[in-house]
C-alpha cells in the first residue's frame, strides 16, 4: 500500500516538473524486503556500502543493478575486493547470509566473493527461486553446510564459484544438469565423496577446479566427454584408480587417420588431437592415483601444464608425449614410473620445466633432451639413472639454469663442463652422489648462482676464495663432505645492492672445517636465517658480531671445539627458535639476556664448561635437564638449586 502510494506521488512530482532527471522510482517490495534482510544479517560492513542502502529506490543502491523494464533487481555486486582509484583493497562483511535473498527472483548475478566474515549456508531453496541466475560468486567466504541438491535447477547458471569456504558434504549429482555451466570452482573446501559421473553432461565446461578437498573414488570416465575443458584441477584430494582412458579418446574424425607407426624418436603425425583437444592444464598431483599414463596421452595436444606428482602411477612414459608441442611444464615426481625416458621427449620444444624426481626411471638419458632449447629446470633426482657422469650435452642447452641431479650415481670430479653452460647456472643440486674431488674454484664465477647443494658427497678441499664473488647466493648446502680449512669465504661474500641475493640458508655441518668462526656476522651476511656448523672441528671464540644476525631462527654450532664465554650480544637474536651449542668448550655463565629469546623452542647447552645459575624465567626453565647437563657447574631450575 505504502509502496503504491509512493510510486503514485513520485509520478505526480515527475509529471508536475516535467523533469525526468528527477526520476524517483521504487523497486519491487519483495526485492526491498530481501535486500533489507540481507543488510540486517550483516553486523559489520567495513566498506560502508550497506549503510547507504536507504529509501525505496534500491536500484540506485551501491552494488545493486536492476533491469530497466521491470525494475527488478538483476545483480548484487558486493565483492570483498574493491578497486578505488586504481588500487585494490579488501573490505570485510561479517554476518550471516540471509536466506531471504531468494526473494530476488530476477537475480542473474550474485557477487559476494572475498567477504571473509560472511557466514551461514547457501540458501536451501536457491534452485527453486533464483532460476535466472547466471553467475553465483560466493567464494572466499566463511560458508558452511553443503550444496543444496536443487542447485541443478539453476538452468541458466554459467559460473559457479564456491571456492575457499568451509563447505562440506558431497558434490550433488544434480550439478550435471547445469548444461550452460562454463566454470565450476569448488576448490579449497571440505567436500568429500565421489566426483559425480553426471559432470560428463557439462559440455560447455571450460574450467573444473576441485583441488584441496577430500574427494575419494575414481576420476569418472565421463570426464573425457568434456570437450570444451581447458583447466582440470583435482589435485590435493584422495582420488584413487587409474587415469581415465577417456582422457585420450580420439575424436571420430581423426579415427580416419589412425596410424600408429612410430619411427624411432619421431612421431609421424605430431598433432593428432583427441576429444579433449582444448585441455591445457591438467593438475592431478597429491592423490592416490595408480596405473599407467595412457599410451595416447599425446592426443591431449593443447596441454601446457601437467602435474601428476605424488601419486602411485607406474609404467614407462609413453612416447606419444612427444606430441605435446605446447607443453611447458611437466611434473611427474614422486611416483613409481620406470623404464627409459622416451627419445620423443626432445620434441616437446616448448618445455620449460621437467621434474621426474623420485621415481624408478633408468638410464641412459636420451641425448634428445638436449634439443629442449627452452628448458630452464631439469630435476632428475633420486631415480635409478646411475648416470656415472653428467652428460656433456647439458652444457649445450641454451636455457638450462636450474640443474637438479641429486642421487644420480655420478662420480669423479665436479665436471668443468658446468663452467661453460650457455645459460648461467642459478640452481645446482648435485647432492647425494659420489663426487670425490675438490670444489672447483670456477664455481665462484657462476655469478647468478642462487642455490648450491653439494651435500652428501666425498668432496675434500677448502671452500675456494672465489666464493666471495657469489653475490646472488642465498642457499648453500655443503653438509656431510670432507671439507677442511676455513669457513670464512662464506662470510666474505659481498652483497651487491639491496636487491642482490644474500645468504639465507647455510649448512656446512658434518665436515672437517677448523677455522673462520671469528667471521660470523662480521661481513655483510647478517640476514642469515639458518646456520648449521655442527659436527666440525671449529676452534676459537664467537665474535660479538654474532649479535648482528638478527633474522636467524636456527643456529647450530654443536659438536665443535668453540670456547670462551657466550657473548652477551646473543640476546639480540630474538628470532631464534633453535639454538644448539652442546658439546663445545663454552665457559662462564649463561648470559641473563638469554631470557629475551622468547621464541626459543629448542635449546641445548649440554656438555660445555658453563657454570653458575641458569637465568630464572621463561623460556630457560621450560627446557629439560638434558639441555644443561654435563657442564662444569650449572645450577638452578630445571637443574638442582644453587648452593649459597
Ligand atoms: C538501462 O538504462 C541505463 C540508463 O538509462 C542504460 O545506461 C543501460 O544501458 C540500460 N540497460 C539496458 C540493459 O538496457
Ligand atoms: C566463521 O564461521 C564460524 C561458525 O561457522 C564462526 O565461529 C567464525 O567466527 C566465523 N569466522 C569469521 C572470520 O567470521
Ligand atoms: C571413448 O572411446 C570408447 C571407445 O571408442 C567409447 O566406448 C567411450 O564411450 C569413449 N568415452 C568417452 C568418454 O567418450
Ligand atoms: C620436483 O618435485 C618435487 C616434489 O615432488 C619437489 O620437492 C622439488 O622441489 C621439485 N624440483 C624442482 C627443481 O622444483
Ligand atoms: C652403475 O653404473 C656403473 C658403471 O656403469 C656400474 O658399474 C654399476 O654397477 C651400476 N650400479 C647400479 C646400481 O646399477
Ligand atoms: C655442443 O654444441 C657445439 C656447437 O654447436 C657442438 O660442436 C658440440 O658437438 C655440442 N656438444 C654436444 C655434447 O652436443
Ligand atoms: C640438499 O640435498 C640434500 C640431499 O639431497 C637434501 O636432504 C637437502 O634438503 C638439500 N638442501 C637444501 C637446502 O635443499
Ligand atoms: C645440523 O647438522 C647436523 C649434522 O648434519 C644435524 O644432525 C642437525 O640436525 C642439524 N641441525 C639443525 C638445527 O638442523
Ligand atoms: C643489537 O640489536 C640492536 C637493535 O636491533 C642493534 O642496534 C645493535 O647494533 C645490535 N648489536 C649488535 C652487537 O649487533
Ligand atoms: C642435548 O645434547 C645432549 C648431548 O648431545 C644430548 O644427550 C641430549 O639428549 C640433548 N638434549 C635435548 C633435549 O635434545
From TrEMBL:
Compartmental location: Membrane
Domain Leucine-rich repeat-containing N-terminal plant-type: start-end pairs: 29-66
Span of the signal peptide: 1-20
Transmembrane segments: none
Keywords annotated in UniProt: Leucine-rich repeat, Membrane, Repeat, Signal, Transmembrane, Transmembrane helix
SUPFAM superfamilies: L domain-like (SSF52058)
Topology versus the membrane: Single-pass membrane protein
One Gene Ontology term, aspect cellular component: membrane
Pfam families, per database record: LRR_1, LRR_8, LRRNT_2
InterPro entries: Leu-rich_rpt (IPR001611), Leu-rich_rpt_typical-subtyp (IPR003591), LRR_dom_sf (IPR032675), LRR_N_plant-typ (IPR013210), LRRC69/RLP (IPR052595)
PANTHER family registered for this protein in UniProt: LEUCINE-RICH REPEAT SERINE/THREONINE-PROTEIN KINASE 1, LEUCINE-RICH REPEAT SERINE_THREONINE-PROTEIN KINASE 1
Protein name in UniProt: LRR receptor-like serine/threonine-protein kinase GSO1
Organism (species): Cicer arietinum (Chickpea)
